[in-house]
Specification:
elongated, 2 domains, single chain, alpha/beta, Rossmann fold, about 40% helix, about 190 residues
Length: about 190
């Protein structure tokens, strides 16, 4: 969806805090560069940064073009992180989508309910919303390559078979979980 600039829609990534939205944006930017997109055609702006709070999204884009010396608005990839910090962000983003036909706009935000409401109301037909939920414990274990710590099992309850996961090495699972929680709280 990001790479396709022929679709005249902004992508809006929503989800709770610390779920990985910003990291996903960083990975997307790295992939674009890896795919041959010039870094001079990519803008990343964290709107929660105080100096960006009261600047329109169009003004940020204009400043980026001026800073790179590129007056051509085509082929840019614009990332606005934590967009909910800009008052009336949906109007700003809708205007950008309407004006810059060959530029891709990607936004992220944490206030999912408010973002979704404003996105549906003002961005109808111009925004594609994506919800990034928190990981389940099973997904977390898988991503940390700790699958050896749990194993799948089944239970038959009144003729219905259900799959569930049990910790094969309870002490090691608990120890790993506490260690990761400690790291998370300290970061």
């Amino acid at each position: 969806m990001v790479k396709n600039t022929t679709v005249r829609r902004a992508s809006v990534l929503m989800g709770p805090r610390r779920v990985g939205k910003t990291v996903m944006l960083y990975h997307t930017i790295a992939q674009l560069i890896s795919d041959g997109v010039s870094p001079q055609k990519i803008l990343y702006a964290s709107i929660e940064t105080p100096i960006y709070n009261n600047i329109s999204l169009d003004a940020l884009f204009t400043m980026a073009k001026k800073a790179t010396g590129d007056k051509d608005s085509n082929g840019w990839y614009i990332f606005f992180d934590e967009i909910q910090y800009l008052k009336e962000w949906e109007v700003h983003l809708k205007t950008l989508v309407d004006v810059y036909h060959h530029t891709k706009f990607i936004a992220s935000g944490s206030a999912a309910a408010a973002l979704k409401f404003k996105s549906n109301e003002s961005g109808a037909g111009r925004f594609t919303d994506f919800m990034l939920p928190p990981l389940t414990f099973h997904e977390f274990i898988h991503l940390k390559n700790l699958g050896a710590l749990i194993k799948a099992d089944t239970i038959n309850w009144k003729g219905n078979i259900a799959i569930f996961f049990i910790d094969d090495k309870h002490h090691r699972v608990k120890q790993t979980f506490y260690k990761l929680c400690e790291l998370w709280w300290l970061s």
